[in-house]
């Protein structure tokens, strides 16, 4: 069996594709570039939206759709993308996904109409759904166990946690000094570097045996997730809207049918063995709750910076950096603690620390300063996110069979994406209700906006507090599995 085209079998019978020595860390660098590209794109465009709307003559609905279309395509196609990576090959899927993402970004960067920009964003989401699980699967099989795996996933988790804030900074810089077009075009050179490096570095790996695509499962999960994401996106206009209720109910029914089909087919798109483990299921639940809180908090924190504190896009982006800095400095410490205290303690403490940070930020006032009212909360939020993200990626993929690495990786990303969509919809509804109640006869003033932001932060904190007992009761992994060598222990 060729190492370059197949997973190689080790002496204990475990399939892996783990290059030795320094080459593994170069692989990590390539995967990190891919992860950074996908994460950046979730926020870098947000800063550019007002300029793009004015330039292209888009309506407010089209402006919101620029974000929704990307999330819709990304979230709905992730599981299918993960299975394609498993069957077709992770290296091949990585390169095609990165190349397609670059082309879609170039199309968006030269867009001359709102419709052209929306089409490009949909293509970005589709190729990201192939790229993201392929990248994480490559990382999983490259670092199968031990301390090197912990370090590698610490880097990956740091990018996942801090990349959103970096996207705000980069979006501010590009919009202010170049144009909004470069918030999309910047992906092209990054993708070229990643592809050129991936061609000689990445080893091909794929699931062995007779592989067949689960077409009914793919249709059900894609339609179900699309309905769910779209339904939540429509909730901004009210939870009682017919389209909101219809698409949410339809999404739940389709996903229930998907679970039923998957439990009965021999070629499942998402094998139930991936979800059946208690620890892995707990990691997925924590991922949903943390993704919802983080994305919602960052969105409304950006609004506070620009609308209340009067910051330019660049200053607003730079003001988001302390959270990223806290994640970067905390992550190495967390990776060392992982083998000492285990993921259960870290993933329980992390949401509580992050929730404390959000509650600190919920005390904002119209005339309050950034340094006194926002900065301390940002630092706590960053520390809490590092405590969660570093062990989360490890736990969610620990014990996964190599043949399921792609789809399990997709499930991790899908939970964060769906969580973010749900969180944004819920927090938007909370914000709208608070601002409407606080607005005077002349409409909402700055005080009403601040009240809305404060309640968003409190709501996000509640979600994080819920994540803590989920982690404590469901995450059961022997901490020695994250040491220098991996003992013969099992999840659960």
Q: Can you give a write-up of this model?
A:
With 492 residues, the chain is mainly α. The protein has two domains: 407 residues, MFS general substrate transporter like domains (Growth Hormone, Chain: A, Up-down Bundle); 55 residues. It is 77% helix and 1% strand. The chain is built from 18 helices and two strands. The chain has a two-stranded antiparallel ribbon. α14 packs antiparallel against α18. The longest helix is centred in the N-terminal third of the chain and has 35 residues. The protein is globular, with a radius of gyration of 22 Å. The protein starts with 7 loop residues before the first strand and ends in an 18-residue tail after the last helix.
> Major sheet: size, sense and barrel closure?
2 strands, antiparallel
Strand order of the largest sheet: 1-2
Oligomer type: single chain
Structural class: mainly alpha
Q: List the domain count as a whole number.
A: 2
Quote the distance from N terminus to C terminus.
33 Å
What is the global morphology? Answer: globular
Mean pLDDT: 77
CATH class of the largest domain: Mainly Alpha
- Low-pLDDT runs: 1-18, 484-492
Organism: Friedmanniella luteola
Transmembrane segments: 25-49, 61-81, 93-111, 123-141, 153-173, 179-201, 213-232, 244-261, 282-301, 321-338, 345-366, 378-400, 421-441, 453-472
GO cellular component, one term: plasma membrane
Subcellular location: Cell membrane
């Amino acid at each position: 069996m060729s190492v370059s085209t197949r997973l190689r079998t080790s002496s204990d019978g475990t399939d892996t594709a783990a290059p030795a020595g320094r080459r593994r860390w170069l692989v990590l660098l390539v995967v990190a570039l891919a992860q950074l590209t996908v994460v950046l794109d979730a926020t870098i465009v947000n800063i550019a939206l007002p300029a793009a709307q004015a330039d292209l003559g888009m309506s407010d609905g089209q402006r919101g759709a620029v974000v929704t279309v990307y999330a819709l395509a990304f979230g709905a196609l992730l599981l299918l993308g993960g299975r394609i990576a498993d069957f077709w090959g992770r290296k091949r899927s990585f390169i095609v996904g990165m190349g397609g993402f670059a082309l879609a970004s170039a199309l968006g960067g030269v867009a001359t109409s709102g419709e052209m920009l929306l089409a490009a964003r949909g293509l970005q989401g589709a190729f990201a759904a192939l790229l993201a699980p392929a990248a994480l699967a490559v990382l999983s099989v490259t670092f199968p166990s031990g301390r090197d795996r912990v370090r590698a996933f610490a880097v990956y988790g740091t990018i996942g946690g801090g990349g959103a804030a970096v996207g705000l900074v980069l979006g501010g810089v590009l919009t202010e000094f170049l144009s909004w077009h470069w918030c999309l075009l910047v992906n092209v050179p990054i993708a070229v570097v990643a592809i050129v490096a991936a061609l000689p570095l990445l080893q091909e790996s794929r699931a062995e045996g007779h592989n067949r695509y689960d077409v009914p499962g793919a249709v059900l999960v894609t339609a179900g997730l699309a309905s769910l994401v779209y339904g939540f996106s429509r909730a901004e206009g009210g939870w009682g809207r017919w389209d909101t209720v219809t698409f949410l109910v339809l999404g739940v029914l389709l996903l229930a049918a998907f679970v039923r089909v998957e439990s009965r087919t021999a070629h499942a798109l998402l094998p139930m063995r991936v979800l059946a483990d208690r620890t892995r299921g707990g990691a997925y639940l924590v991922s949903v709750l943390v993704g919802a809180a983080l994305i919602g908090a960052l969105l409304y924190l950006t609004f506070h910076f620009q609308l209340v504190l009067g910051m330019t896009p660049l200053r607003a982006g730079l003001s988001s950096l302390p959270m990223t800095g806290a994640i970067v400095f905390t992550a190495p410490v967390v990776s060392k603690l992982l083998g000492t205290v285990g993921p259960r303690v870290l993933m329980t403490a992390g949401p509580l620390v992050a929730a404390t940070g959000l509650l600190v930020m919920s005390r904002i006032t119209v005339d309050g300063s950034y340094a006194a009212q926002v900065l301390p909360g940002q630092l706590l939020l960053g520390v809490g996110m590092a405590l969660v993200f570093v062990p989360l990626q490890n736990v969610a993929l620990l014990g996964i069979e190599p043949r399921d690495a792609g789809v399990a990786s997709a499930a991790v990303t899908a939970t964060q994406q769906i969580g973010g969509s749900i969180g944004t919809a819920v927090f938007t509804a909370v914000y709208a209700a608070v601002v409407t109640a606080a607005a005077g006869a002349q409409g909402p003033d700055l005080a009403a906006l601040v009240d809305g932001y404060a309640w968003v932060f409190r709501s996000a904190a509640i979600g994080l507090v819920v994540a803590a007992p989920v982690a404590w009761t469901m995450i059961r992994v022997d901490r020695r599995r994250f040491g220098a060598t991996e003992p013969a222990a099992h999840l659960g």
